[in-house]
Amino acid sequence: MLGLAIVAVGLCADEKTSNHKPISAKPMWKISGQLIEACSCNAACPCWFGSMPTRMTCSGDQVIFIRSGSYNGVPLAGLALAQFVRSPEGKTMMESFGNWDFDYVYIDDHASTEQRKALVEVAKHVFPPAAKNRTIKYVPIARKMQGKEFIVHVGDISTASGHLIDGGYAGAPKVVNPPMADPTHRSYQQGVATKLTFTDAGQDWDFTGTNFMINDFTVDNVEYEKFEAAMMKKMKEMGKGG
What is the pTM of this model? Predict the structure, then answer.
């Protein structure tokens, strides 16, 4: 269930030191930034609407680039974090959540020791644990624009690129309040991925022409507390119904 996954922390090389105060048990945090997401489904991804994935599984990533914000006073501006997951075969996102095949989270290796700790905590909320175990690693995370193309590199294990598509009127299509939305997915602009690769977790993804999404957001701990409480209630109701 949400928030109950075991976290397996990966090796942390060349950690930097910081004078920030230790993270408290009751954190206060707020971040603004951009979410870039791609997956193996056709656009728009049906998983966000409670439907079956395009393929037997949904293999995807979401990467958050923080523009401003902090976690318990630890500044996080300019840092990034990413999650890669794969859903089990033949199940929707909701009915299988918490039992996905794997859940790998990557933390920006430019972060100081305290920033890394803070980002791991933020990841527990903005990336709700999708599998029974979570693996965390520290790698460089970068993005750039090439014309209209968004290009994201996560270490040497993933490259994702994509662009927004044109809507029937001016601008890209915008999806608002899909049934499976968490706060960072309350709305997003729709695009198409020109590439999505991933070579960690025993995977060798190489998808083209699939789902791609972008959202500029501002979220905080209060908003996520409400969301997580609602999700817990919904999952308990599903358990009783099953």
Answer: 0.87
Contact 192, 165 (CB under 8 A): yes
**Nearest by Cα to 183 from 62, 52, 59, 73:** 62
What b-and-e string marks burial along 68-99, b requiring 16 or more CB atoms within 10 Å of the CB? ebbbbebbbeebbbbbbbbbeeebbbeebbbe
Contact 198, 104 (CB under 8 A): no
5 CB-near residues (< 8 Å, 6+ apart): 98, 103, 129, 130, 131, 132, 133, 134
The pLDDT tens digits for 24-63 are 568 999 999 999 999 999 999 999 999 999 999 999 999 9
> What backbone torsions phi and psi does residue 23 show, to the nearest 5 degrees?
-75, 130
Distance separating alpha carbons of residues 149 and 235, to the nearest angstrom: 37
Contact residues for 6 (Cβ-Cβ < 8 A; gap 6+): 132, 133, 134
